[in-house]
Each structure stands twice: as C-alpha cells, then as structure tokens.
Amino acid sequence: MAFRPLGGYRTRGAAMQIIRPSKRELLLLGGVVAVGAAAPALPIAPAAAEEKGAGENPKELVTGKQEEEVSPPEDLMREHGVLDRVLLLYEAGIRKFASSADFDPSLITQSAEIIRDFINNYHEKSEENHVFPRFMKAGQMTELVDTLLRQHEAGRHVTQTILGLAPTSRNNAENRRQLLAAMQSFITMYRPHAAREDTDLFPKLQKLVSPHEYDAMAETFEKEEHRLFGEDGFEKMVTRVAQLEQRMGIHDLNQFTSH
Q1: Three-state SS string across 158-183, please?
Q2: What are the backbone dihedrals phi and psi of residue 214, each rounded to the nearest 5 degrees, phi first?
Q3: How many distinct helices (H) and strands (E) make up the chain?
Q4: Cα dihedral 123/191/115/244 (nearest 10)
Q5: Per residue in 14-33, pLDDT tens?
C-alpha cells in the first residue's frame, strides 16, 4: 500500500494549494505516535549484561572470585592431606636424628604446632561435634567411632609430649629418645586412623543427614575455620607445611620417586 506525504503544498498553475491529511491518515499517525510514546527505553547491550551476570552471585561480582563449594567429607579429607604431610615431616626428622644430622629441632616443634592447632583443636573437634554424634545417633559404626575418639585423646597427649621434648632434643639424649618414640607412635596411630575415616566413615555421612543438614555442616566447618585461622585458613596451613618441607629438605616430590 502506497502512502502519499501527510499534508504539504502543491502548485496548480500559478496558485499554491494546501494539501490537508485525510482523517484516516491522522488516525494512523496518532497510532504510531502512541505506540512510540508507550514503548519503554531499551537497556544498553542487554545481551552482554545478561551474559555477564549469568551464574554469578553478588560476592563473585564484587570480589571477582568464584566461591568454591566443598562437601563436608571432602573438607575433612583435604585436612587429612595436611596431617599426612606433617607425618612426612616427622619421618624426615626421625631419619635426621638417626643419622646424627645437624638440624634445627624447632622444625619438629613447628610441625607439632600445626598438628595441635589445625588437627587436634580444629579438625578433630569438627569430627567430634558434627560427624561422630550422627553415627552414634543412627547406631552405625559405633565401635569404629569409639576407637577414633580414643585415638583423638591419645593423639593430643602425644602432641603435647612432642612439643615438650623437641626443644631439648638436640643436646639431651634421653629426651631425644623419648621424642623419637613419641613421633613414631603418632605416625603409627594416625596413618590407619585417617585412612579408616576416609574410606569407611566419611563416605557414609551423607546418607545419615538431610540435604539441608549436609549443606549446613559444610557452612559450619567453613565458619569455624575462618574464625580460628582467618580467610583461606586451609591454604595458609598448606603454605606453612610447604615452608617446613623446604627447610627439612623434603619439598622436592621427585626425590620420593622409585628408580
């Protein structure tokens, strides 16, 4: 359908004639204006804004960091990784004492402090307050839980012994002998202790609690870690362990490779 211009002028001979728009054209023009006035202003680059915001929570937009979701068993197993690396430090210390190597026994003290602060007083408390009671309430694996609890108590006692003996172990032969025995007993107890939790206990935890309890437990672990050790508490402990490994001479993983 062709439209002529609305209104205007045309000449007929020497005279100029005004062209007035028809009623139908005025109605059409009014509809277009009305629609234009009612249309909302489009946001700038809506597709780009939608794509940028997709899947991001407010904290991610502010910090630029994506929140890492860690389940309760995974959280506890990662902490067992810290424990096992300290056991490697203990073993390295035992080898150095056995070979009469001259090294600073404060490395043993600092290793035991990580065990005390991160394992005995945080990791094991998480298990005792939030994991073990759920198994006892459900009547499942109660014998194992009883043993694990006794080992927690024994482990705290051995850690205190190590902390007490390490400072004088270089010059006192009897203290050195007792220290070596304490470190070996801790290694002997905690290797199977952590392995049994990782393979027998933790995998069954999710079946004992509701999804809401499971998520709440993970949040509780994280809040307690932040309260005791600040943001990125786990990462800070791993860094401390790595520094001790460097000083103890066991930081290069390749040295443990079989030939």
Answers
A1: HHHHHHHHHHHCCCCHHHHHHHHHHH
A2: -60, -45
A3: 12, 2
A4: -130
A5: 444 445 555 444 444 454 44
Residues paired with 15 in a beta bridge: 12
Q: Identify the helix (H) or strand (E) that includes residue 191.
A: helix 173-196
Provide the residue count of the chain. Answer: 259
Model-level pTM? 0.74
Specify burial of residue 259 (Cβ count, 10 A radius: 0-12, 13-18, 19+): exposed
Tokens of 103: 């090294």
Tokens of 33: 């204006």
> Three-class SS of residue 192?
helix
How far, in Å, CA of 225 to CA of 200, rounded?
Answer: 24
The CA distance from 94 to 17, in Å, is 113
Q: Which fold has domain 72-251?
A: Four Helix Bundle (Hemerythrin (Met), subunit A) (1.20.120)
For position 159, what pLDDT does the model report?
Answer: 98
- The DSSP H or E segment spanning 254 is none
Choice between 68 and 95, residue whose per-residue pLDDT is larger: 95
**pLDDT one-digit tens code per residue, 162-219:** 999 999 999 999 999 999 999 999 999 999 999 999 999 999 999 999 999 999 999 9
3-state secondary structure of 225: helix
Which two tokens mark 204?
A: 């069954």
Tokens of 6: 């609305």
Asked if residues 148 and 124 have their Cβ atoms less than 8 Å apart, the reply is: no
Using the CB atoms, write b or e for 158-197: b if 16+ within 10 Å.
Answer: bbebbbebbeebeeeeebbebbbebbeebbeebeebbebb
**pLDDT per residue over 210-249, tens digit each?**
999 999 999 999 999 999 999 999 999 999 999 999 999 9
